[in-house]
Design brief:
Length: 187
């Protein structure tokens, strides 16, 4: 199963045969991309769909050939190369709750729109809102980055959290200037 998930662009850990956190995050991403509710198990339906998955429809059909798309409704990120998804990941975006930091209060939202990666920060960095791994900034202080906590619900201050194994692959694929499309997705 891990090898199939890797072949389809969902899994970037070591194929160990162990159903670990990296495998679980990949299964969640696969389930979301197939229109299934994410569950903690890979049942017979998941295994059948891995044989012949439904093609993922882009959020921005006329978007750049190489791009990142972030679907806030499904909590899903896809990296496209030559208009084909090569990396698909479960994510956790802005929680939509009010928070205060440094005397300034705001709502934790991931901004929607068309952006470009403006800055890369390799490895671990720590800011006033927490630690981030392999950050790819796309609007102000908002980045796609690795995190050890990527729950099924929106939980960040506005950044787009991805699983750690995925963060390494994402950082290798995406460079400054790459388009990033953030949308609420289709209902």
């Amino acid at each position: 199963m891990q090898r199939r998930l890797r072949d389809k662009g969902y899994f970037w850990g070591r194929a160990s045969g162990v159903y670990d956190d990296s495998t679980l995050a990949a299964v969640w991403g696969f389930q979301k991309s197939q229109g299934m509710p994410p569950r903690n198990v890979a049942d017979a339906k998941v295994l059948r769909l891995l044989e012949h998955p439904r093609r993922m429809r882009p959020l921005v059909p006329g978007g750049a050939r190489d791009r990142v798309e972030i679907d806030l409704r499904r909590q899903l990120l896809a990296v496209y190369r030559d208009r084909r998804p090569v990396l698909i990941s479960h994510v956790s975006s802005g929680a939509g709750v009010r928070f205060c930091e440094g005397g300034r209060c705001r709502v934790a939202r991931t901004p929607e729109g068309d952006f470009r990666v403006t800055k890369r920060a390799p490895g671990w960095t720590t800011g006033p809102l927490g630690s981030m791994y392999n950050s790819l900034y796309f609007v102000g202080g908002v980045a796609m980055h690795g995190s050890t906590k990527v729950p099924l619900r929106p939980a960040s201050h506005g950044c787009v959290r991805v699983p750690m194994d995925t963060a390494d692959r994402l950082y290798r694929l995406v460079d400054v200037g790459e388009p990033v499309y953030v949308r609420r997705g289709r209902g």
